[in-house]
Design brief:
The complex is a heterodimer of chains A (269) and B (282). Chain A is an alpha/beta fold. Helix content of chain A is 36%, strand content 22%. Chain A starts with 7 loop residues before the first strand and ends with a helix. Chain B has 282 residues and is mainly alpha-helical. Chain B has a single domain, classed as ABC transporter involved in vitamin B12 uptake, BtuC (Orthogonal Bundle), CATH 1.10.3470.10. The two termini of chain B are 37 Å apart. Classes of the chains: A alpha/beta (269), B mainly alpha (282).
Chain lengths: 269, 282
């Protein structure tokens, strides 16, 4: 079941993405609502992170288009915030917690403007919301995994965006912190923010998220959580380990079947 | 007076290399500097063969061109051929370096361009290559002015684009989502690395340049808390090693660049011990 939203925060049409000539996402066609907490779930290798990275322009897409608030990413970058996976950076980098959260303000500060009183207040406020204000001057190399994750979330808050894309924000976080962060998300939604989270714990989806996208190389289901969480969708998402699309992907790569319609189009010109 | 110029040139070499080296170490691309410093060899030889002069501006241009060629070749093998970055580096720089070595032994046997000079540097001869005005005024060694120019370039680049460099060095994907072109900044840093290495090879040789790039920064990295303090301390440690190294070399009658690198190594060991004893960083 793929339910479309009439007033979407993000709209993806017919998007195909591949890694190293091997398609990992097929014909993604979804529109997600505004002001909700949305989860993207699916097994390992289902393309959850790839979906976020494509939306954030970190991976080139082969076909289709993505619109955020009916605009392209470049037009509204300052309204969009991205929380990468915690493991994607080197936490031995010489910086304090404050330094990293302040990076969330760089977009507003440009190259030369010094951090204003307002920037500093926003940074402190973001750290307080994630209860890491006491770690302000701590070296990031001395943080636990859960604290690192909260630094990333605080940096995202400091960006003061309207839509947040988070890749596994609950990894390495204990259950009480997880609850506190979900409460924080709920408050953000009240302030008209939209939060899209790649999530791996299928058991907590029902309690945490208003809307759920179930993904396994293609969209299995997208809709209000209580409507999409059913046995049939589960079976289709997590069921067979090696589904037919994986096999097709392998064939596409092996036979060198063209997947980049854009490049073909250019050649014809 | 000659000692004065040698020390001054050595200080400029270490400053340039420490500054650009700080970013290379943090971006884990120190070996790119090694690759570039070796890959400049064919450029040096070819422009020498064309102009018959070791110290002309064309040699610098040729060297920079082949350094930049190496950067793009490594990027090409890494991205397009999906070869790991260290393998790409290994293939490209040894290949270019070999071309340089072969060209030297083929064409330049009777000339004053020898492998030793390019590989190990001749900082002692720096004061001999002077800029003299038409009315006989001696302005000082050519290398001094070239290095000074590169230092101004490096410094203004780092000061103006500090925030971009900071954010892209820590978290590339986040930086990219805020609209910063990651590939562009990566290439700009590497191009500055190429210019720095080219300006330095005459003094300290293409092999020891890497020690000027990596050792002061690595030492500072062990005991510093932030990027700004790393930039400052690595510059300071670089200058210290250059000055001390020069005096030790003079005193013991040893090659100057080698002594500078050795002192830098000693400083690194001291910093390592400090970092183990004192856990409060600066």
């Amino acid at each position: 079941m793929i339910k479309l939203s009439s007033d979407p925060s993000i709209e993806i049409h017919d998007m195909t993405v591949s890694y190293n000539r091997k398609p990992v996402l097929w014909g993604v066609d979804i529109s997600l609502p505004k002001n909700q907490i949305i989860s993207i779930v699916g097994p390992n290798g289902a393309g959850k992170s790839t979906l976020l990275k494509s939306i954030m322009g970190l991976i080139e897409i082969d076909s289709g288009y993505i619109k955020i608030f009916d605009k392209s990413l470049n037009e509204i970058r300052h309204k969009v915030s991205y929380v990468p996976q915690r493991e994607s950076v080197d936490w031995d980098f010489p910086a304090s917690v404050y330094d990293i959260v302040m990076m969330g303000r760089y977009q507003y500060m440009g190259l030369f403007r010094r951090a204003s009183k307002k920037d500093k207040e926003i940074v402190l406020d973001s750290m307080e919301k994630l209860s890491i204000a006491s770690l302000k001057n701590r070296q990031i190399s001395q943080l636990s995994g859960g604290q690192q994750q909260r630094v990333f979330l605080a940096r995202a808050l400091a960006q003061q965006a309207d839509i947040y894309f988070m890749d596994e924000p609950f990894s390495a976080i204990d259950i009480s912190t997880e609850n506190a962060i979900i409460e924080l998300f709920k408050e953000m939604v009240k302030l008209n923010k939209t939060i899209i989270v790649v999530h791996h714990d299928i058991y907590s989806v029902k309690n945490y998220f208003d809307w759920t996208v179930m993904l396994n190389m293609r969209i299995i289901a997208s809709g209000p959580t209580n409507q999409v969480l059913n046995a049939e969708n589960f079976k289709e998402t997590y069921g067979s380990h090696l589904n037919i699309l994986t096999e097709v992907s392998n064939i596409v790569k092996k036979e060198r079947i063209p997947i980049r319609e854009k490049k073909l189009y250019k050649k014809k010109k | 007076m000659e000692g004065f110029w040698i020390i001054l040139v050595a200080i400029l070499v270490s400053l340039n290399n420490s500054l650009i080296g700080s970013f290379l170490v943090l971006r884990k691309s120190t070996m790119m500097a090694d690759a570039i410093s070796h890959a400049v060899l064919p450029g040096i030889v070819i422009s020498y063969l064309l102009t018959k002069s070791v110290s002309s501006i064309y040699v610098i241009m040729g060297a920079t061109a082949s350094g930049i060629l190496a950067i793009f070749l490594i990027g090409f093998f890494n991205k397009t051929a999906k070869l790991q970055i260290d393998a790409s580096i290994g293939i490209v720089f040894t290949f270019l370096f070999a071309i340089g070595v072969i060209l030297i032994s083929l064409y330049t046997q009777k000339a004053d361009l020898d492998q030793e000079c390019v590989l190990y540097g001749e900082i002692v001869y720096i004061p001999l290559n002077l800029i003299i005005t038409k009315n006989g005024l001696i302005l000082g060694p050519k290398s001094f002015y070239i290095l000074l120019f590169i230092l101004i370039l490096n410094l203004s680049f780092i000061i103006i684009y500090y925030r971009y460099l900071h954010i892209t060095s820590f978290d590339e994907s986040f930086a990219s989502t805020t609209g910063i072109n990651i590939a562009l900044w990566n290439y700009l840093i590497l191009i500055l690395t190429a210019l720095t290495t080219v300006a330095s090879f005459e003094s300290v040789g293409t092999i020891l340049v890497l020690s000027f790039i990596s050792i002061p920064t690595a030492s500072a990295y062990l005991i510093c808390k932030g990027l700004k303090s790393i930039l400052l301390l690595s510059s300071l440690l670089g200058i210290t090693s250059a000055v001390l190294g020069y005096h030790v070399a003079n005193f013991l009658n040893l090659p100057i660049p080698g002594c500078m690198s050795m002192i830098a190594g000693g400083v690194f060991i001291i910093c390592f011990i400090i970092s183990k004893v004192n856990l409060n960083k600066f």
